[in-house]
Amino acid sequence: MAAIVDAFSPLQLGPITLRNRFIKSATNEGMAKGGIVSKGLALFHERIAAGGAAMSTVAYCATSRDGRTFVDQAVLDADSLADFRVLTDGVHRHGAAASAQITHAGSFTFLDKATLKASRPLSSSGGFNKLGVVSGRFWKQRMTKADMTAMADEFVAAARCAREAGFDAVEIHMGHGYLLSQFVTPLYNKRRDNYGGDIERRMNFPIEVLSRVLDAVGRDMAVLVKYSMTDGPKGNQIDEGMAVARRLAAAGAHMAVLSNGLNVESISAMFGSNLPKSSAKSPNPIIGLGMWVQSLSEPKDVRFHENYLRDLALQVRGATDMPLAYIGGVQSRHGVEQAMRDGFDAVALGRALVYDANFVRDLQAGSIEKSLCNACNRCVTMMYYPQGTSCVLTRNAMDAALNTQRASA
Ligand SMILES: Cc1cc2nc3c(=O)[nH]c(=O)nc-3n(C[C@H](O)[C@H](O)[C@H](O)COP(=O)(O)O)c2cc1C
Ligand code: SF4
């Protein structure tokens, strides 16, 4: 039997080495108000790095302005380079690595008519856009081959920009219902060409993007992929989740982060607990309406338990030898050790580090055994407030003024 890996030991990830196996997962920070990479955002990630994690993932760095879900999201382009550089410098000062989650919303966008450049949001397939009920964009545009080539170019440009800004890694988002996920899942992908049909064909475009990004930056940066192992009823099931991992491995991804569920159709499968009823009271009425629509399809009483994605993730672990990060409800030393015993190479943590940025340091020092985060998900609603994503229990909100000042100013 293979020896159990110590979570505090270094990890080789493609061309980079992480100091330990704790990765801060992307948690939309809500600190890029008006799209600027702010002092608050930079400080948020510096605190994670100082708190002991090996790598901090900057959530939702859009590949273009049309690729944003909300206006308050940063775009990885020449305009944001100097600000992102301040952020990565801050993370490096504490010995950690910085990863940029690169993504495009596709039809999962709340951008209004005046903001979205394209006349219809792009997706794998055309037709009625259910999120258009809140954004006013009722129809999606099926991507042509030329659109796909241009989109892959966008991902490459964003990855190159991340490298220039000092990031050590990029995480390509193929999950949760954003554009690439709209190819992976049969809930959105109704194509009959080489990019639709069974899971192998639905993966063809996401794999093209991954291969192009690996070719462009994979010698200098780690290239991770986050995806959803399952999507809920009528969506991908775990056999498809395993097939996705095999394709990512064959294409040479340096690590897969094993998430679950889609934002609209199955969000509690992502969080292992319900969103709070108060989410519909978001300060942005459009987003509040979107969250209310989403809550209609959610199972009512999802009981959180630690490592709630373990059974699914173990099946993927059995399907591939590629490096895998376990994600989903890691809240304690026991949960970390279980993931290591299960053969995962790293753990990715969201809420335990939103609750307290020092979780990893304190665990290593032996001063705590578990996080007191109760998985209430009220931090998810916080991202729409001026302070941005923070824990309502530990009250660690960012000074709102810092979220509106450019990091490099
Ligand atoms: C406030 C908040 C915002 C999130 N935003 C993102 C995001 O932008 N991108 C992403 O891939 N996942 C996002 N997630 C999901 C987390 O990365 C993670 O997959 C999920 O919270 C489960 O991990 P955990 O149990 O360690 O929190 C978010 C989670 C939270 C709590
Ligand atoms: S608000 Fe705090 S306690 Fe609730 S899920 Fe978020 S981090 Fe955990």
Structure in words:
- The structure is a single chain.
- With 409 residues, the chain is an alpha/beta fold.
- It has one domain (11-404): TIM Barrel (Alpha-Beta Barrel), CATH 3.20.20.
- 34% of the residues lie in helices and 14% in strands.
- It is built from 15 helices and 13 strands.
- It has an 8-stranded parallel barrel, surrounded by 7 helices. A 3-stranded mixed β-sheet has the order 6-8-7.
- β12 (324-327), α12 and β13 form a beta-alpha-beta unit.
- α1 (39-50) packs parallel to α2, α4 (145-164) runs parallel beside α7 and α8 (238-251) packs across α11.
- The longest helix is centred in the middle third of the chain and has 20 residues, at 145-164.
- The protein is globular, with a radius of gyration of 19 Å.
- It starts with 10 loop residues before the first strand and ends in a 27-residue tail after the last helix.
- The model has no long low-confidence stretch (mean pLDDT 94).
- The structure holds flavin mononucleotide (FMN) and iron/sulfur cluster (SF4).
- Flavin mononucleotide (FMN) is lined by residues 25-28, 59-60, 101, 173, 176, 226, 259, 270-271, 327-330, 349-352, 354, 379-380, 383, 389.
